[in-house]
Design brief:
223 residues; alpha/beta; Rossmann fold; two-stranded antiparallel ribbon; 9 strands; globular; binds S-adenosyl-L-homocysteine
Length: 223
């Protein structure tokens, strides 16, 4: 799947993702067109593949960001609240903020301070990103994302950008009813995306989706 949607500009990358059926929703396309991936990774930004961003982290491939947005889309509307665990480069945090502006809020949590600083600097490279940050539409926080971020809970949608070893109860607890959690989970050395829905009556269903390869959701590195 990687590579075949690569482009030479942000626009051609997004158009190719749409042509190949990896973006099917107009709102997702519009949001990804609004955020230049080059602001979030200096190397090969328009290739449909992950890129290293330092600190053993990677910015995920554009088709994975598209898949996350498409899955969470029914819960992404102006005014909602979203948690992005393992926000890394900040790219997806910004795309989600585009989907829920003008009055939505996305909290990006990463446990590595230099990555929190990087995501902040990346987002501030564009006028739209700067405005979103200044208005409080995006907030980056250093914390252990396995515990969620209780202060802003509950969330209409939660995205996890690193592979978890289990379904962390805090994340499920911090989901609104209704709400949706999109997260990679590793079991027996194999990772899959799981989509957990909390229904209006509070019951939770889990659905196993595609096989993936994410960096692990871990303890913070010793400094
Ligand atoms: N969505 C990001 C993915 C970055 S890679 C992007 O596309 O840019 C995964 C990120 O998860 C890394 O930045 C890593 O620092 C972070 N991470 C890993 N374990 C974590 C934890 N326990 N709490 C918060 N962030 C964590």
């Amino acid at each position: 799947m990687a590579w075949r949607s690569s482009g030479s500009t942000n626009e051609t990358l997004v158009e190719n993702l749409a042509r190949n059926g990896l973006i099917t929703q107009d709102r997702v396309k519009k949001a990804m067109l609004a955020v230049d991936r080059a602001h979030y990774t200096p190397s090969s930004p328009y290739q449909d593949s992950p890129q290293t961003i330092g600190h053993r982290a990677t910015i995920s491939a554009p088709h994975m960001h598209a898949a996350a947005c498409e899955s969470l889309l029914p819960y992404l509307y102006p005014g909602v609240k979203v948690l992005d665990v393992g926000s890394g480069s900040g790219y997806l945090t910004h795309v989600i903020a585009e989907l829920i502006k003008p009055d939505g809020k996305v909290v990006g949590v990463d446990h590595i301070q230099p990555l929190v600083d990087l995501s902040t600097a990346n987002t501030r490279k564009s006028d739209e990103g700067r405005q979103l940050m200044d208005r409080g539409g995006i907030q980056y926080i250093k914390a252990d994302g396995r515990l969620g971020w209780a202060k802003e809970a509950p969330y209409d949608a939660i995205h996890v950008g690193a592979a978890a070893a289990s379904f962390h109860t805090e994340l499920i607890e911090q989901l609104k009813a209704p709400g949706r959690l999109f997260m990679p989970v590793e079991e027996d050395g194999v990772q899959h995306i799981w989509v957990c829905d909390k229904k209006e009556d509070g019951t939770v269903t889990r659905k196993k989706d595609m096989g993936v390869r994410y960096v692990p959701l871990t303890d913070a590195p010793r400094t």
